[in-house]
C-alpha cells in the first residue's frame, strides 16, 4: 500500500507534501516516514495518509473563485479616447496664464 507523507517544518507552519512510502499498515508507514522524511530536515510533525483516502477536486468539477480583477490600479488598464477632460484643459490653461503673468512681473 502507498502512503503519502506531509511534513511540517515549524510549529504553526503548513504541512507540505514531501513524498510517499510503501508499507503494509499505518504503523509501519509512520515509522518509514519518520526515517525517510523526518530526519533529514528540521521537522515538527508528519502526516501519513493512505493514497486512496486523498480526494481531488479540479477546476472541471467546481468553479473556483479565482482572483479579483484589480486592473483598475494600473493606468494601462484604462482606454483613452484622445480627448482630455474639460477640467484638465481649463486647469492647464490657468496654469499657463499664471506662468506668463509671473514672467511679466
CATH topology of the domain at 2-53: Ubiquitin-like (UB roll)
- Give the number of DSSP strands: 3
Overall 3D geometry? elongated
Instruction: Report the span from N to C terminus.
Output: 92 Å
Tell me the CATH superfamily of the domain at 2-53.
Answer: Phenylacetic acid degradation B
As residue ranges, the low-confidence spans are none
Radius of gyration: 31 Å
* Structural class determined from secondary elements: alpha+beta
CATH class of the domain at 2-53: Alpha Beta
Mean pLDDT: 86
Compressed to H and E, one letter per element, the order equals: EEHEH
Q: Work out the strand percent.
A: 15-25%
Number of discrete helical segments:
2
Name the strands of the widest sheet in spatial order: 2-1-3
Major sheet characteristics: 3 strands, antiparallel
| CATH architecture classification of the domain at 2-53 | Roll
Helix content: 25-40%
Brief write-up:
Helices cover 30% and strands 20% of the residues.
Describe it.
- By secondary structure, this protein is of the alpha+beta class.
- The chain has a domain at 2-53: Ubiquitin-like (UB roll), CATH 3.10.20.
- It is built from two helices and three strands, in the order ββαβα.
- The longest helix is centred in the last third of the chain and has 19 residues, at 86-104.
- It is elongated, with a radius of gyration of 31 Å.
- It starts with a strand and ends with a helix.
Amino acid at each position: 500500500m502507498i502512503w503519502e507523507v506531509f511534513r511540517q517544518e515549524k510549529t504553526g507552519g503548513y504541512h507540505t507534501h514531501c513524498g510517499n512510502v510503501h508499507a503494509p499498515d499505518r504503523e509501519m508507514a509512520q515509522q518509514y516516514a519518520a526515517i525517510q522524511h523526518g530526519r533529514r530536515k528540521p521537522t515538527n510533525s508528519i502526516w501519513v495518509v493512505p493514497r486512496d483516502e486523498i480526494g481531488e477536486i479540479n477546476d472541471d468539477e467546481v468553479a473556483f473563485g479565482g482572483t479579483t480583477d484589480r486592473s483598475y490600479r494600473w493606468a494601462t488598464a484604462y482606454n483613452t479616447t484622445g480627448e482630455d477632460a474639460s477640467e484638465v484643459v481649463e486647469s492647464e490653461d490657468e496654469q499657463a496664464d499664471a506662468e506668463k503673468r509671473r514672467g511679466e512681473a
